[in-house]
UniProtKB/TrEMBL annotation:
Name this polypeptide is given: Voltage-gated potassium channel
tRNA processing keyword on record: no
Xref: InterPro entries: NAD(P)-bd_dom_sf, RCK_N, Trk_Ktr_HKT_K-transport
Native organism: Lentzea xinjiangensis
Record's keyword annotation contains Transport: yes
Length: 126
């Protein structure tokens, strides 16, 4: 494992989670996996390595380096997709710390059950 943090889904939820996570490495590396080119350009501007792709695709997760990451942040817009991604990440890297941002508080236990170590509930504004 390295000082790599992989972020799957780069939007407001991911940025909120990253602001609250301590970086335990002298030279942390961040890789962002997202299908949206605008999100990727924002990540690139913030110094991240970017990987265009869908987090539900195991090949894209591998390309981002998930199997070597110390930490993976799952912050996609849909909780069902987030559950699938969390399970895939856990299968690729049993030792990684997985932090998930969820939209529905009722899904918090599901994320923990499928392998998330920390779950941030992101409340939607009306």
């Amino acid at each position: 494992m390295t000082g790599l943090t992989v972020v799957v889904g780069y939007g407001d939820a991911a940025l909120d989670v990253l602001r609250h996570l301590p970086l335990h490495f002298e030279h942390p590396e961040v890789a962002v996996l997202d299908p949206d080119s605008v999100a990727l350009m924002g990540a690139l501007a913030n110094g991240a390595r970017i990987v265009p792709g869908d987090g539900r695709d195991i090949c894209a997760l591998r390309q981002a380096g998930t199997q070597f990451a110390a930490r993976v942040v799952v912050a996609v817009p849909d909780d069902v997709d987030g559950l699938v991604i969390t399970m895939a990440v856990r299968s690729l890297n049993p030792a990684a710390i997985i932090v998930a941002a969820v939209r529905e508080p009722a899904n918090q236990e599901l994320f923990t059950a499928v392998g998330a170590d920390d779950v941030f509930v992101r409340f939607r504004s009306a």
